[in-house]
Amino acid sequence: MKCPFCNHADTQVIDTRLSDEMLTIKRRRRCLACDRRFNTFEKIELQLPAVVKSDGSREEYDETKIRSSMMKALHKRQVAMKEVDAAIAAIRQDVLMYNDREINSRVIGDLVMTQLARLDKVAYIRFASVYRSFNDVTDFTNIIKQVDTK
Question: 67 near 84, Cβ under 8 Å?
């Protein structure tokens, strides 16, 4: 590993720790030339399918977009971040199980809706109102009836 301070090519690993989720390894390193210390992180690199948007364009799967939209829907709701992280991990797992190199953005939206319905009914309705482009009050009453029957 190259030192970020002096660009020396040889560094020594001082300490190695696993993250709580057991998905990331943190390594504490020391440069053998300048003796400065720094951290590196290793994580699994997954090959996620490309997302096909409704206009036909393609982009990389971006978990930060999913987190952002879920957090907007969950704004001022009493849902623990641990539960949100678990929901996002479940969505990632479902996307990984998708046996194609591309996935439609509607499929991801439906996965988000499924997780939000499990986490918080109000957040589910908020997300659905934007995701499904509600036009009037009847759209809201229909989705509320669906939530009541679940």
Answer: yes
Query: Smallest Cα–Cα separation from 72: which of 136, 134, 135, 124?
Result: 124
More confident residue, 69 or 141: 69
Q: Mark whether 101 and 119 lie in a shared domain.
A: yes
Handedness of CA 57, 106, 98, 25 (dihedral sign): positive
Residues 123 and 103 both lie in one domain = yes
What would the mean pLDDT of 120-135 be, rounded to a whole number?
A: 82
136 plus 66 within the same structural domain: yes
Which domain does 56 fall in, by range? 50-149
* DSSP bridge pairs for 119: none
Strands 24-31 and 11-18: antiparallel
Domain count, the chain: 2
User: Tokens 């953005």 appear where?
Assistant: 105
Residue 76 belongs to some domain of the structure: yes
In this predicted model, what pLDDT tens digit does every residue of 35-91 receive, in sequence order? 999 999 998 877 889 999 999 999 999 999 999 999 999 999 999 999 999 999 999
Contacts within 8 Å (CB) and 24+ apart, 32-37: 32/8, 33/3, 33/6, 33/8, 34/3, 34/5, 34/6, 34/8, 36/3, 36/5, 36/6
